[in-house]
Amino acid sequence: MAIFSKSNVPQFSVDVYQNEYLPEGGREVNAIVTVTATGGGTVGGAVGAPHLYAPGESPSAAVAIMVDCSGSMDYPPTKMRNARDATAAAIDTLRDGVRFAVIGGTHVAKEVYPGGGRLAVADATTREQAQQALRRLNAGGGTAIGTWLRLAERLLSSADVAIRHGILLTDGRNEHESPQDLKAALDAGAGRFTCDARGVGTDWEVKEVTGIASALLGTADIVADPSGLAADFTRMMETAMGKEVADVALRLWTPVGTTVKFVKQVAPTVEELTGRRTEVGPRAGDYPTGSWGDESRDYHVCVEVPAAGLGQEMLAARVSLVVANPGDGTAQALGAPGLVKAVWTDDMAASTSINPQVAHYTGQAELAQVIQQGLDLRKAGDLDGATAKLGRAVQLASVSGNADTAKLLAKVVDVVDAPTGTVRLKAKVADADEMTLETRSTKTVRVKK
């Protein structure tokens, strides 16, 4: 059983950045909440010592690796070989004592290792056995990702651990089950385990893969060249091994008369959380954030407060981090809360100033949105609309210093003038370039210090 105490849980801090001043009649309050966890398992990507279990206990984590074994994985044949090699590399990265399983996915889900509806315990022997079992992976059959996820959930749920994580690899579209079946599997897994999803090659559906990662609070990415799978799987597993506390929620309390307009993660990626709220008491709700190691994330909170007179001030919201205590349904606070305030003033300069963090992340959220809109319009044949949206994306990427996104955009449009967003659509765009831009469109950059 995982042990939660101040000595072995990463320490969380909450910092609030906002312009608290509102004009007379003003009601909308915006704040960027930076959450930082320190003392966990990863520092700069390196796996550190575990902190969530008592002396003598095994690492409190379980991992399920889901490998696409559908027929398309044989075209070219190197794709299946690279997938086997990547899974072997991920298994090598497991800490001793971590529970794990490998699932082969087609139109059905099969236990590749260890089998029997159970998880193996990582050590030198089981790693070698698992890698031997990978040699039996062959391509053939269809694709029904929901069945893979359901098997992963059953296996992971059998372990009494704090961290339950999945890694899913696919190279094709989910053609052998309905969208409703996949959604039901995601709904069943949400809150039960987190999952990173990867699309290999260019024949898969971006919205399916990113939707899986979003629903299960993981990451999504493209590996256009299968030879890059091993390095990517190793990085994913290193990150998973660094997670030290699971089921962390951002708890938002608001006073009477205040309405929550939205809550979204804005760094390192844009992720809408508003609709995922769980009521936990009078005027308080929890928003899931998944598992944490040593890391920092930013959230944009927007609330609407009752109108008040000049000179008045109020607490518009209180933001804290909590983690569920296993078994009893209660929650433990992680660090001191952050306070979002509102002060009404007739000072025009104070009330019209936009906080730099709020302005930056409002732009980053718009950047993700206009990229998606632009690509959708391009696919629909609306070239003028696509040019306008992607031009706006180039402008936002330039202003915010999001160089990575700017480079991806430059493979889809010819940039005439970045500051004004003047662009021309490229006549020919490689599938890999368009899919990379779409998959990574939600990645953001932090505010420049």
Structure notes:
With 449 residues, the chain is α+β, with helices and mostly antiparallel strands. It is built from eleven helices and 23 strands. The strands form five sheets. Strands 2, 13, 16, 17, 19, 20 and 21 form a seven-stranded mixed beta sheet that branches. It is globular and about 75 Å long. It starts with 10 loop residues before the first strand and ends in a 10-residue tail after the last helix.
How would you describe this structure in keywords?
single chain, 449 residues, alpha+beta, 7-stranded mixed β-sheet, 11 helices, 31% helix, globular, disordered N terminus
What is the straight-line distance between the termini? 41 Å
Largest sheet geometry? 7 strands, mixed
> Tally the helices: what do you get?
11
- Report the uncertain regions: 1-7, 41-58
- How much is the average pLDDT? 92
Brief overview:
This protein has 449 residues and is an alpha+beta fold. It has helices at residues 77-92, 124-134, 145-157, 179-189, 206-215, 229-241, 348-352, 356-379, 383-400, 403-409, 431-439, and strands at residues 11-17, 21-22, 28-38, 42-43, 46-47, 61-68, 99-105, 109-113, 120-121, 163-170, 194-200, 220-223, 245-253, 259-267, 271-272, 278-281, 284-292, 295-304, 313-324, 331-333, 338-344, 413-417, 422-425.
